[in-house]
Amino acid sequence: MTRVEEAMLGGGEGPAVAKLLELLVALGEVFGAERLVPVESAHISGVSYKNLGEAGLGWLVEQADLGARARIRATLNPAGMDMEFWREMGVPEEFAEGQRRVLAAFERMGVEPTCTCTPYLAGHVPGFGSQIAWAESSAVCFSNSVIGARTNRESGPTTIASAVTGLAALYGYRLDENRRPGAVVEIEANLDSIMAYSALGYVTGKRLGTTVPYFKGLGSPSLESKKALGAACATSGGIALWHGEGVTPEAEAMGPYLAGLERLTVNASDVEEAAARFTGPLEDPIIALGCPHSSLEELGEIAGLVGGRDFGGRLWVFTSRSVYSRAEEAGHVEAIRAAGGRVFRDTCMVVAPLREMGWTEVATNSFKAGHYMAGMGMSTRMGTTRELLGGRP
Amino acid sequence: MIIRGRKIVGGRAEGVALVSRDPVSFYGGIDPVTGVVTEPGHAVDGECVTGKVFVFPTGKGSTVGSYVIYRMAKLGTAPAAIVNLETEAILATGCVISDVPLVDRIGEEAFNGLESGMVLRVDADAGTVEVVEG
Known about the structure:
Oligomer: heterodimer
Helix content of chain B: 10-25%
Radius of gyration of chain A: 21 Å
Distance between the termini of chain A: 59 Å
Structural class of chain B: alpha/beta
Order of helices and strands of chain B: EEEHEEEHEHEHEE
């Protein structure tokens, strides 16, 4: 430890800094880190009151009371509701009160209330090779793989600790040797939709667990397909980093490490089987899109598909405030509203209190969302954006 | 008998051992208000962890478990100390933010020798677990 770090741990910068640094040191101990490393960006999870409850809220308020303040750029994952239009979502008053207190505690800590799982679409884009402390498994996958920044799969408390101390323990994906692939995944399927990339991720995560995959044959995925792939990889397995030949920035440097690796093939029937697992008898489901949060392009596609139709309030699209304001200017929000759909900010189908909102039957294009909604007991079906919006499933 | 392990979260505590051969999830696996293990079929289902030296192989489940340990500490239902074979991030985080002493890597043989009802003295700063009685 440096003298500065010793002083922080000893309370020289107040009790919050001391306690939160103690947390990073303890985790460094668990994972055999040799030292701490400065981080330049934090993305904090554990924001929905549904997951935090009074226990988590109490801890957040205590940190703010003790003087915890972010010293690096720190953004926030989705909350359990649209902070403005929560009544229209059917969120109970008591829940809304808890959620407001969570946000207030974070704002006192100097954290930007972005409330999105796609901070990289809201202007928070770390540099290639930079050390960052990000939670939210899909954002971890995107920043490690597509941006080439370096983070482990952090949790709510550890990202707060990094935001407040500007440090993280040096282990795992922060080190070159742990960023090398552990398996080569060859694709023999037609990746013709965002959902197909999501399915590929879901199959890969299930087979590989936490092993870093090196994909061959990914084609030229759009940003949206890359975010869907990583989100699904991180849901069915614990994948934090993937490489794609000709697609991701570190892939070329991985060439020397591919010989002798385990090889597996994902074909069309694997992808179909993954989707089939979620097909249940459905009548008039709620169509939920935007996991991870929709980009401007996705909102544009949705707006283009819903013209002249009436979804009667049963089409929900989730995005960040940042993308929403651009989509509003482009007319996408109004087009979706005119077709009986709604665009909500700050939240999503994974962290909102769906049961309390009365949801039972749902359809989505995201295997991450499908996985969690099925886990919440919803009858869940998968479909591409076009399939879901082109004809009622 | 003094067992040597690895300090993760410092502090000292003495209490009756509750030994589980199954991994433990604090989120969903333990009722934070009563301190009772509620996971059906779990090795210590129905037992209360409050004030005990809680010995189990490792943690499992959601990262929200860290906050459950914190809530239990605030309610006075937390264990006095936790001893693991090999700990993980959820437990380490929960114990730091709740000031619950945590020691791990006590070795398979020592772990197998510990039984519920023994009185254990944990000196996490020194990384030791002493069998005082039993």
